[in-house]
Structure prediction request, 220 residues.
Amino acid sequence: MQEISYEVVRSDRKSIALVIDNEANLVVRAPRAMTDDAIAEFVRRKYRWINEKRKQVDVFGEKHSKVEVQTGESIMYMGNSYAIVQDDVDAVTISGNEILVPQEFSLEDMTAWLKEEAKKVIDERTSRYANIMGVIPGEVKLSEAKARWGSCSAKNNLNFAWRLVMCPLSVIDYVVVHELSHIVYQNHSPAFWARVKTMLPDYEDRQDWLRLNKKIMEII
Prediction:
């Protein structure tokens, strides 16, 4: 049996979980008290599952290929893949699992539409969680960032990658809560993560989605 390399991330979770990222790296999320030997044994028992998941990574790039605006292609929106259909419509319309776009709709038009949607969703979620968390952010802007999903400046201004609109709402919420938490904690201290966990007890699962789907930033 070939040795499997992996990274261990310990936290206050109660169970162990395996995550394969989009570069076929194995991350083991484990309780703080779990021994290295116990983790190694768990990984050994999951050897077949790990290899199968790593094989699936080979098709990941095809799943998130570059966007082309023409009938038969697809686009990610709010965590779902929609088939693009060029139709006799005046504006973008979502119908079932299809996105209907005007006949002459270009990639630039699609990008502009996604940015408008991103602005509406992110503004609404930021306002919602800011009220719940009792914090007051400065300006909330969208960015063209392809390396980070969000940031919080020293003046509490928030920047979010507009490409977040391609992610599930639960993941958007995680990025929003993460940046709002930086208004109080300008670091990634245990207190910061405790704040995030108070709002989103399953935040690690949402982190895992971002880790696995980070190539989504490159498709448009």
